[in-house]
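Worked example (supplementary).
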Amino acid sequence: VKTKGRPKKIKTKWLFKGRLFQFATIELRAPSGRKFSHQVVYHPGAAVVLPLLDGERFAMVRQYRTAVEKNVLELPAGTLEHDESPLLCAKREIQEEVGFRAKSWKKLVTYYPAVGISTERMHIFLAQNLTPCPMALEQDEYLTREIVSFRQLKKMVESGTIADGKTLLAFHYYCQYIRKR
Amino acid sequence: VKTKGRPKKIKTKWLFKGRLFQFATIELRAPSGRKFSHQVVYHPGAAVVLPLLDGERFAMVRQYRTAVEKNVLELPAGTLEHDESPLLCAKREIQEEVGFRAKSWKKLVTYYPAVGISTERMHIFLAQNLTPCPMALEQDEYLTREIVSFRQLKKMVESGTIADGKTLLAFHYYCQYIRKR
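After joint prediction of all chains, the assembly is encoded as:
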């Protein structure tokens, strides 16, 4: 199977510019000369945290998600602020959303959650040696903290109750990590 | 930790309506009465296929992705057409993108890849008992087929060379599946 070459970007038409992300139509020219367009979400990236507590329990959040119009059980996560490193963002988010500080951090994986439409990269961290601190939710965040055992989480992953991609991926990387330890 | 209640959608302002997806600003009212807004990508969902060949090899695609402006090695996948079931879409996509038909199909997982910004659900299938058929790429698709062994794929997952979320998740579900078999 031969490659047909690579399209070239010729124009960006901005459709939306927000504080957290932007949305544009990209016009491209194919190697054949034909023009076409794709839509792209420009996103600064996000940090995701799997906060591990004593007794192999995890601090999760149940959060109202506007897109799917329901409460979703997922890991604490947030969008990178201007010039913020993924690790710094991860530290900020577990404090804000679940009220913990962590002494040890391990990167599990960095990936594109939706490479077909978005520039977003997600950075998943395992946070260990936690100590409680005050929670500080941002405005427009509607969530509750839930402490979940490994056994409960495993059951919810296997039954399809966990539907959030970053949480599923974090769980699989954690399982791999503990088998290796 | 107490829930603060659930916001209510009060208005949808369409910013973009395309053939494959839409983009809108959703205005919401918080339980406190305060108004705020979120942006949402409305997406019909996608089917992803892990096509398993003899000798534990996989048929993958290296595809130019406008969002990240590079060629990405990933599994064949595509957006659900109007009224199309995920399985029908999966069957169409492995034929179009890698030139195979499969006799046996197994759903590995359904998940939200980016629940913070998009309604999209991805349905990942394992396709087995493959027979070759002609490829039929859609216009605006620039990709080449690559046949990759389990060993190669494992190495690329572990080294971070595979950066696409659906491909990582499919790989982990496959590993779980073969251990259970």
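Two points are worth noting when inspecting this output. The helical segments of chain A are 86-98, 150-159, 165-180. Chain A touches chain B through 69 residues (CB under 8 Å).
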